Structure formats: structure tokens, C-alpha cells
Amino acid sequence: MTELLFGTAGVPHSAKSPSTIDGIERIAELGLGCMEMEFVRGVRMGEAVAIQVGEAAARLGIELTAHAP
Predict the structure, then answer these.
(1) Is 11 helix (H, G, I), strand (E, B) or coil?
(2) Structure confidence by residue, pLDDT tens digits, 4-18
(3) Please, which contacts does 41-44 make with residues 24 or more away whose CB atoms are closer than 8 Å?
């Protein structure tokens, strides 16, 4: 990694909805580079949604991190 990225812990409050995909889209609109997915009470995301999240992040150039128990 050659650059420092800034982002939010979780979906931004200003996103259209509390969904991870809407959060990623809002992160891109704000000009940020990453978003932490908060799985602090367990991972509640199915495989199909995880694939969609990964595709959205890749399409928009957003790096994802995870906070998990």
C-alpha cells in the first residue's frame, strides 16, 4: 500500500439506508477510500450479499476492512 486511506467505521449516517452497499456508495460520494464493516455482534451477512458487497466496493474503488468478535 502506498497511500493512507480514510473512511468510516460502519455505514455513514448520511447513507440512503443502513445497508452495507448503500454505505459503500456513500463513502465513494464523500471521496473517502475505505469503510470498516462492523461485525461486533457476529457476522450477519450471507454469501450472496457478501459477493454483492465485494463487487460494489471493487467497482467504486473502496477498500473494506472488518471489525469482528
Answers:
(1) coil
(2) 999 999 999 999 999
(3) 41/69, 42/69, 43/68
